[in-house]
Recover the amino acids of this structure.
């Protein structure tokens, strides 16, 4: 008789993996590396957030690579690893480990494989998870279209789209912070 013994992976297991990954339903989900344009856009967001944070003395900006640990959500998700984020909660007890909590603002920058119907569904599910966990604003940054779609916890399925020539914001998550869309996709 064969027995299916599933071993549920944990945040401790996630902490030991190389590269970008998240913990969902007891499984570590790895992400493909991104290309120059998505990485550059994510970096620009993080740099701008960092400058804002230092200027205002509020919150902290994070670039790609930080993980946020959360209590298991209905979807099974236990962590987030946004491409850029803004956090204003308490610092982790161990600053070498994950942040316990969620960012107020998260930016998800599309990579080459983040297009098509299944990718759209996955991104919508992840936004739902962000909002269920307490994130106030999520950006869906599209390097191909050169747009930012902003979703808020109060209108989680209605995007406000910022295009070249627009100044994007992340209200109410990061009050007063602004970023020119053209700066993300400068050539």
């Amino acid at each position: 008789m064969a027995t299916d013994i599933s071993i549920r992976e944990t945040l401790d297991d996630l902490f030991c993996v190389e590269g970008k990954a998240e913990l969902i339903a007891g499984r570590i989900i790895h992400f493909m590396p991104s290309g120059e344009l998505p990485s550059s856009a994510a970096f620009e967001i993080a740099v701008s957030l960092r400058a804002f944070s230092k200027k205002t003395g509020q919150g902290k900006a994070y670039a790609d690579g930080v993980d946020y640990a959360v209590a298991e959500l209905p979807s099974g998700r236990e962590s987030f690893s946004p491409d850029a984020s803004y956090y204003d909660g308490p610092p982790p007890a161990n600053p070498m480990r994950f942040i316990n909590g969620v960012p107020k603002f998260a930016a998800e920058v599309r990579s080459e494989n983040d297009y098509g119907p299944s990718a759209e569904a996955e991104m919508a599910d992840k936004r739902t998870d962000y909002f269920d966990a307490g994130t106030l604003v999520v950006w869906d940054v599209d390097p191909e279209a050169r747009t930012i779609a902003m979703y808020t916890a109060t209108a989680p399925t209605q995007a406000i789209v910022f295009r070249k020539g627009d100044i994007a914001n992340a209200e109410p998550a990061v009050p007063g912070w602004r970023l020119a869309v053209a700066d993300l996709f400068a050539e």
The first strand starts at residue 21 and ends at 24. The chain has four helices and 13 strands.
